[in-house]
Amino acid sequence: MWLYYFQLGLRSLRRNPALTALMVLTLAVGVAASVATLTVLHVMGGDPMPHKSARLFVPLLDNGPLQGYTPGGDPRQRDRQLSYRDASNLLRGGQGERRTAIIGVAAAVAPARPDLAPFAAYGVAPTSDFFAMFEAPFRHGQGWSPADDAAGADVVVLSAALAEKLYGTANPVGQRLSIMGFAYQVSGVLAPWQVVPRFHRIVGGRGAFGEEEDFFIPFASMVRHQSEHYGSTNCNGPPTPGYQGLLDSECTWIQFWFESAPGGRAALQAYLDNYADEQRRLGRLPRHAPNRLYNVMEWLEFLKVVGNDNRLSAWLAFGFLLLCLVNAIGLLLAKFSVRAAEVGIRRALGASRREIFRQFLVETGVVGLAGGALGLLLAFGALALIARQSKELTVVAHMDWAMLAATFALAVAAAVLAGLLPTWRACQVTPALQLKSQ
């Protein structure tokens, strides 16, 4: 019977193609606007590592002075990075399954090829745990070892794009490359690695939706060479001059991540609190502010990666969809009202109100499917226009299978919702009155 109603719906839509096209277009425009906006919001606010994001934590310690401090203030006003002293101590503490400090690096790369001039590249200096912690995919070779961390070895992992630029399709593992004027040996090459958002390097990096890093060198190697870092630095006062002065200061300029065992958050929090108490006995951390741990999703919320403006845009898009639904309701009322005679005859021949209701509801569902198909095409077009605005928007303006299914579900649900009132009105037709008028 449902198939029969579906066939009736198709025939009905062909009777008045202009009105049908107007209904489908109205629904498609509303669906496309809401789905395109929702897709961008879905990608921006998605969990980049759903299987382990609850076990990755950013620790924050407030090492600022008492002057100007208001207890219980907004935690977002606090520093979002650690000092070198705290980062080094947490690395040596050995807590969690893995741990890494991360510093941004802007460096001059001097290729061995005579046809390539030196150029600037941007990377990070983490520890060896970084690659396993964030599951970076390797195309060639591997990362460096903890022994390389301890020695501050001059080894480097290249991104796929930089390796292709320097060596083409050849495997460059074992080659030497001049970075910042020092000879680094290539230990590995990553496969293309697009994490959305790039949660591990938002503060001081290329942003949550920026391009991937060009290269990775050991944290200790960068410090050993006293290389200038790339990123934000927050100091409560001028540090002692020189690189060692920066290392000894309370300036915050290093990102830090822990990976805990399942259920290990409480142990990490206890360790962080004990560490802060120990540092206070040494005369540091005078504010006695709460020590905080943020997992991946909490960190994205803390940094407001998806801002209120993005959420407002989504609500406005759904408001536009509601306006389109109101228009669709009016068109369906007009369409069904001219079929009162048909409904009266069917009722006189024995069709129940329930059967009439099913028939017209299936017909609105057919409109929804057509509107979903057209809305999907319009949504792809809207996302393509969004992606052309900037490289960052290119990362978020793409539709996955979940949003693809949601497009059709939203279109059919919207059409059925719009058809409830017109369908109910059609079911109220009195057969006797319609037969007398014929």
Keyword list:
single chain; 438 residues; alpha+beta; 6-stranded mixed barrel; cell membrane; Macrolide_Exporter_MacB; ABC3_permease_C
Write a structural description.
Strand 2 and strand 3 form a beta hairpin. Helix 13 packs antiparallel against helix 15 (401-427). The model is unreliable at 432-436 (pLDDT under 50). The protein has a six-stranded mixed β-barrel. It folds into two domains: 2-45 and 307-437, no CATH class; 53-302, no CATH class. With 438 residues, it is of the alpha+beta class. It is 50% helix and 13% strand. One of its GO terms (molecular function) is transmembrane transporter activity.
Q: Looking across the biggest beta sheet, what order are the strands in?
A: 2-3-8-5-7-6
User: Structurally, how many domains make up the residues?
Assistant: 2
Nearest-integer average pLDDT: 81
Protein structure class? alpha+beta
What proportion strand? 5-15%
Number-wise, the strands total: 10
Shape category: elongated
State the share of residues found in helices, binned by percent. 40-55%
Largest sheet: 6 strands, mixed, barrel
Uncertain segments are 432-436
Total number of helices: 16
Secondary-structure element string: HHEHEEHEHEHEEEHHEHEHHHHHHH
Provide the gyration radius in Å.
30 Å
The span between the termini is 28 Å
Main location: membrane
Organism: Rugamonas rubra
Keywords: Cell membrane, Membrane, Transmembrane, Transmembrane helix
Membrane topology: Multi-pass membrane protein
List the helices and strands and how they pair.
Layout: H1 2-15, H2 17-44, E1 56-60, H3 84-93, E2 98-110, E3 119-125, H4 129-133, E4 138-141, H5 146-151, E5 155-158, H6 160-167, E6 176-179, E7 182-190, E8 215-216, H7 219-224, H8 243-248, E9 255-259, H9 265-281, E10 292-295, H10 296-302, H11 308-337, H12 340-348, H13 353-387, H14 391-396, H15 401-427, H16 431-437
Parallel strand pairs: 3-8, 5-7
Antiparallel strand pairs: 1-9, 1-10, 2-3, 2-6, 2-9, 4-7, 5-8, 6-7
Helix pairs in contact: 1-13, 2-11, 2-13, 2-15, 11-15, 12-16, 13-15
Keywords: Cell membrane, Membrane, Transmembrane, Transmembrane helix
Subcellular location: Cell membrane
Membrane topology: Multi-pass membrane protein
